Amino acid sequence: MRPVGEGMDWGAHREQWIELGFDSVAINALFGPEPNSESVASAELRLQQASDLIELMDNAPATMKEIPKAMQAHLLNHPGDVDEIRDRYIAHLREISPWTLAANRSRELWSMEGRSVELQAWMRRLSTLEKGGGEEVVALVQAIEKVAPRDSVRKCIEALEVKQRAREEVLQNLVGILQQKGWSIQFSKGANLIQRFEEANQWLRLEDRLEEVEEIVGTFARRRASKSEYLMMQIQAIRKDPKVDDVIQLEEAVVKEISDIDEQNTIIQNRIIHWKDLGLLLPYSDPLSVEDFASIDGNLERLEEAWKSALDSSQHLRNLGVPLNFDIIDRGDCSNELIKEIQTWEQEISHNEREASTQISRWESLGLDVQEFMRPNSRDLDVQVQHRVTAGSLAEELLASLDSLDITMDKERIESMRAVIQLRWGIEGELQDVATEISRLSRRQAKHRSMLISRAKILKMDVQGNEEWTLVDFEGYLARAEMARDRQNERQEIEIRRKEILEMKHLEEKEKAVIEVTETIHSSPEEDLLKDTWIEKKAADGRFFYYNGRTKESTWKKPRNQPVNERRPVEKQDEAENEGSGGDTIQEIRVEEDSKVPTNILKETH
Predict the structure, then answer these.
(1) Which candidate, 73, 64, 3, places its Cα nearest to that of 32?
(2) Is residue 170 classed as helix, strand or coil in its secondary structure?
(3) Is 242 in contact with 203 (CB distance < 8 Å)?
(4) End-to-end Cα, the chain, rounded Å
């Protein structure tokens, strides 16, 4: 906000003071290069004080005008020194004691008036007062020089006394103020009221300067804590032992500190702009507040390390390709949180990569083609693996299904499907056809095994644990079992036939014996006919066979175009008779060519 009156023409104000005799250069210096209402008011106050002091000197009695002429000239050329000139004028008046000087010069006049005793009384009363200047002193000196009436002199003296009492009260107030500020008050030895008053005023001016310094130090108390603490200790030391030189040194130290702070502010602002240009978000107001500067000053190097870390961490998170947390990303005050975020994501990524590598190794162990995962600089490996998990699981299931099939039966088809699974498992739709084929082949093999089990049950074969048998082995076991069964059947059939042969032989021998007996008695044509007739007989197993008594032949099939005696009973031979026949017997069984029973020639050794 611009000060009130800035840019206005203050020429008229300058002219009125120039007309009073003040130097134009001095006036311009007081007004400043760019006058405004505040600077003009301050300048005119100083000019008015200088004008009043000059007027006081002009109105002073002749006894008080010996030196003030030079002071008046100085005030016209340097109105800003009005306080210094006033002090010098008061000191001059104290030295010359104007009412004493006026009394000595006008003593004869008082004597002529018969008032010498009165003058002496007034002088004794005035001796208790502090010498000084001012309108009251001027009025008193004029009253003495003019031998004024008693009441006039008394009023002038009383005015001085009132002023002195007022000065004493003011001095006490000043001393009290200074003591409250921590001052140790000790006036110069033998100093009168005016001197003490001047000393107190000087201390008060020093206190004003110290307060100003104290206020400035307070502005960077948070920012430069140790330095401000040291300066505050210096201020308290000066109040205990006030020295102008110490105040000057203190002010210079504060100015230097402020200059250093301003320089540091510029550096901080430039660094803030630099980091913001790099994309960093900083938790500071724009423009920077005093609190912002205080929090950065002295920590800039450490903060910049944290800011760089935050920026690098944010970029690292972007490079990782993970979802970004916009509450902390690019935030200069979140470097630690960003580092933790990176650690969390890197652990998760590392975990995912390990799982992906494990999964790839498993697929590779199954023989699946994993070349697409082996490319160098492959990014998002875990994502690629995740895209193949379903297909990989299906491929693994299909390979397990293939392994469960009997490779001895369909080796070429199984190996062909295995190659398709391993090489083309990542192509969508390829595995479904293989799965269908595996299912079909599995059902066929299961049906085949079921058939083999049924055959085995017929053979009363123990099939416990047949799931571990290959189909080829199962068929081999069945083949051997059937061969064993056939051999057993053959042995049984041979045994039956052997018994039949023995029975037939026994019958033949018995008939032969009967025939021989009959032949010895007589032989008739009928008997001869019977000898050439096929006789139907019943074997031990209940089957019928035909026997020719003449040719000694036997057959299972009824002879054609041959006489057959079907009414002749077949006598059953008991076991004793069969067992009673001894010796080795070789019997041939001849069967007609059109017989359904295969022709066998058995040789049985007993």
Answers:
(1) 3
(2) helix
(3) yes
(4) 145
Tell me the two tokens of residue 246: 């110490």
Based on the fold, state whether residues 138 and 60 are members of the same structural domain.
Answer: yes
**Residue 478 domain flag:** no
Q: Is residue 130 situated within a structural domain?
A: yes
C-alpha to C-alpha distance for 373 and 367, rounded to whole angstroms: 14
Domain that holds residue 380: 366-458
Residues 112 and 238 in one domain: no
The count of C-alpha atoms lying within 13 angstroms of the C-alpha of 541, restricted to the half-sphere facing its C-beta, is 14
Chain centroid offset of residue 91 CA? 77
Q: Which whole number is the average pLDDT over 489-516? A: 84
- Assessment of whether the complete model's pTM goes beyond 0.70: no
Measure Cα distances from 297 to 223, 269, 292 in Å.
6, 11, 9
Task: Return the pLDDT at 274.
Answer: 92
Confirm whether 160 is domain-assigned.
Answer: yes
Question: Count of CB atoms within 10 A of residue 271's CB?
Answer: 15
> Are 376 and 430 contained in the same domain?
yes
* Same-domain status, 181 and 216: no
- Return left, alpha or beta for 361; rule: phi > 0 is left, psi -120 to 50 is alpha, else beta: alpha
CB-based contact 309:338 (threshold 8 Å)? yes
For residue 248, what are its two tokens? 């000057």
232 SS3 class:
helix
* C-alpha–C-alpha distance, residues 479 and 445, integer Å: 18
585 lies in a domain? no
pLDDT of residue 529: 52
- The backbone torsions φ and ψ at residue 367, rounded to the nearest 5 degrees and listed phi first, read 90, 5
Last residue of a domain, one of 254, 280, 298: 298
What dihedral angle (degrees, nearest 10) is formed by the CA atoms of 31, 33, 34, 39? -30
pLDDT at 447 over 50: yes
